[in-house]
Each structure stands twice: as C-alpha cells, then as structure tokens.
Amino acid sequence: MSTKHPGTVLQGHGDASAASEPRVPLVVYFSSVSNNTHRFVEKLDARTVRLPLLTGEEPPEMTEPFVLVAPTYGRPNGSGAVPPQVVKFLNREANRRLLRGVIGAGNTNFGSTFCLAADRIAAKCDVPVLYKFELMGTPEDVRKVNQGLEQFWRQFPQLRA
After folding, report:
1. Per-position DSSP letters for 16-78, written without gaps between them
2. Which of 72, 126, 134, 135 has its CA 20 to 30 A from that of 39?
3. Other Cβ atoms closer than 10 A to 142
4. pLDDT tens, position by position, 71-96
5. Cβ–Cβ under 8 Å, residues 25 and 32
6. Is residue 22 within 8 Å of 160, Cβ to Cβ?
7. pLDDT in tens, 24-35
C-alpha cells in the first residue's frame, strides 16, 4: 500500500485497511545508503515515512504524532552523531511538536556513543528513548519494538490522530 504524504510516501505493512487507521503507529525514519535502518523499519507493523537521503531535499512536514527511528553516525567523541537529514527534519517546529518518542539504531563497536543520536534527540525534544537496536536489528528486536509501539500507541490516546 502506498499513500501520499507531503513530500514522501507512506508505506503500510500488514493489512492495508489496518495500516490506514490512525491507531496504527506512524514511524518516521532516516536510513543511510547502507539501508540497515530501512531493513529494520520495513519489518515493523507501522505506517512509515522515510526521510530524504540527500540533505538538499526538503523533509516532510508531519501532520500527526509519530515515533522517530534514527541511526547514530560514528564520529570521535560523538560529534555529528545525529544525521544532518534528521536535524533538518526536526528543525521544523511542527515536526518537533508531533514527535512522541525516539528509537535508536547504532553499532556497539562505537562503545559509549552507541545510539547517541537517540539520546541527544530525546533530550533536546523532551521525549523518551523507546528502544535501541544494533545495525539492522534482530527478529527479537523487531518483536519487542512492535509490541512496544503497540502498547505505547494504546496507552496514549493523544498519539492517535
């Protein structure tokens, strides 16, 4: 299923009718050319919006609450941990206002900076870090995130449009 959203494509996974309902979580994500984050997100039971790969492209403006999935870029001392495409997206006040939580992707090889982007986004935007996974995640990560998103969405009626 594909439904147009300002500047991007929504992808529903699972039953098409369920995917179009606001009770199904909305996940916005950035994935680099490695596509690790994309491979993880496409396994989720959620509607998804992928942020543009190129920083010159305009990010979408969200119109309903969402959870953000962001990878961490590995640089010394964590500088530049948040991808510039994510920064550009969150620099839009409307997008920040609708952000409800963040899920981090990372690589444990980077030690203390593992999923640092999620921690920084959560602190800056005053939202919780909901989960962290490595690279493209495991089937167990997918299961836990699906369960967590479903519970998170049900728990907070204000998340539904």
Report:
1. HHHHTSTTS-EEEE---TT-HHHHHHTTSSSEEEEPPSSTTSPPP---S-EEEEEE----GGG
2. 126
3. 18
4. 998 666 767 899 999 999 999 999 99
5. no
6. yes
7. 899 999 999 999
Q: What is the DSSP string of 127-148?
A: --EEEEEETT--HHHHHHHHHH
Q: Which of these, 71, 67, 68, 66, lies nearest to 31 by C-alpha position?
A: 71
By C-alpha distance, which of 31, 56, 65 is closest to 136?
31
pLDDT at 76: 67
How far apart, in whole angstroms, are the C-alpha atoms of residue 80 and residue 93?
A: 21
Structure tokens at 3: 């439904």
With bands split at pLDDT 50, 70 and 90, how would you rate the model's confidence at 152?
Answer: confident
Q: What are the structure tokens assigned to 64, written together? A: 């309903």
